[in-house]
Amino acid sequence: MSVLVVGSIALDTVKTPVEEHSDLLGGSASYAALAASFFSPVKLVGVVGSDFPESEFAFWKARKIDSEGVQRVSGKTFRWSGEYSWDLNTRRTQSIALNVFEHFKPELPDSYRKTDFVLLANIAPSLQTHVLDQMDRPRFIAADTMDLWIETARKDLDALLPRIDLLILNDSEAREITKETSLIKAGRQIRRMGPRHVAIKKGEHGALLFGEDEFFSCGAYPLEDIHDPTGAGDTFAGAIAGYLAGRVGTVHFTDLRKAMIYGSVLASFCVEAFSLERLRTLSMDEINQRYETFKLMSQFEVTG
Ligand code: AMP
């Protein structure tokens, strides 16, 4: 089954303490769509300007990412620039130029409306809602968000949450939205705000998953070299949504546990290079190998 992915498509400038690159492909939907495409066909929704490289459309086509829902508008593509400190965890947004994003209103092609799985990657909650309103009863809806929307669009976010099957957010956002210091309390409290499941990402410390009476915790892959953490969260969300869409039948908590591992695997590859470069060359064999490593790492009763 396909997964519909809506979010930002951007040209990013990223600076780490050792490297700086500009005009890289970025945006929440770019990362999420490519990650999801390893597991299921993708229908992408977004907007780009006239400066956006044509080659990306050809790349999406080659990867079974349908770009009929990507609007091409005259003007400049959304631009974001960020700088990381030495821990490669703390990030400062240096500039944002909304450009064609400013008047973006996602309109779904007819062929997208019946898609069963949806990932509302990080964009304003009012736009995420606008996409859902055009859909014909999807089976599973995952959504990502960020501190900006918790601070500036709380009403819209609160209205969206009861419609969500899985909300994905990072630890600082979970604390911010609930005003709780404990992530366990925060996860449970966010569930009471509406989403059926909540995934809290803890960066290099792994992730937590909360269901009605279920809980799951996983570690992160022990990487030695991180080059660019940008998009790790979007990649995590994309792989989860793609994995779930690629299976048959109802989504159970056991499927979500596996999806969290695939999300962690893809995110660990994403940060190995700038922009989407590592994801572009990644193979399913490499994904499966790392998945197996995760399995071994999480066993604590070993025989022999
Ligand atoms: P992440 O590292 O997962 O937080 O995602 C980074 C991506 O989010 C970058 O490629 C940016 O282009 C994109 N981004 C940054 N700010 C926003 C925003 N306000 N809305 C949508 N996407 C954004």
Topology:
Blueprint (H helix, E strand, L loop, with lengths): L2 E4 L3 E6 L4 E7 L1 H9 L5 E7 L5 H9 L2 E8 L5 E7 L6 E7 L19 E4 L4 H9 L6 E5 L2 H6 L1 H7 L5 E5 H8 L4 H10 L4 E5 L5 E4 L4 E4 L13 H15 L6 H18 L6 H5 L2 H14 L7
Helix pairs in contact: 1-8, 6-7, 8-9, 9-11
The structure holds adenosine monophosphate.
The site of adenosine monophosphate has 15 residues, from strand 2 and helix 8.
Tell me about this structure.
- The protein has 304 residues and is an alpha/beta fold.
- Helices cover 36% and strands 24% of the residues.
- The chain contains 11 helices and 13 strands.
- The strands form 2 sheets. The chain has a 9-stranded mixed β-sheet with strand order 5-4-1-8-9-10-11-12-13, with helices on both faces. Strands 3-2-6-7 form a 4-stranded mixed β-sheet.
- A hairpin with a 6-residue loop joins strand 6 and strand 7.
- The radius of gyration is 18 Å and the shape is globular.
- The model has no long low-confidence stretch (mean pLDDT 97).
- The protein binds adenosine monophosphate.
- The site of adenosine monophosphate (AMP) has 15 residues, from strand 2 and helix 8.
- The site of adenosine monophosphate has 15 residues, from strand 2 and helix 8.
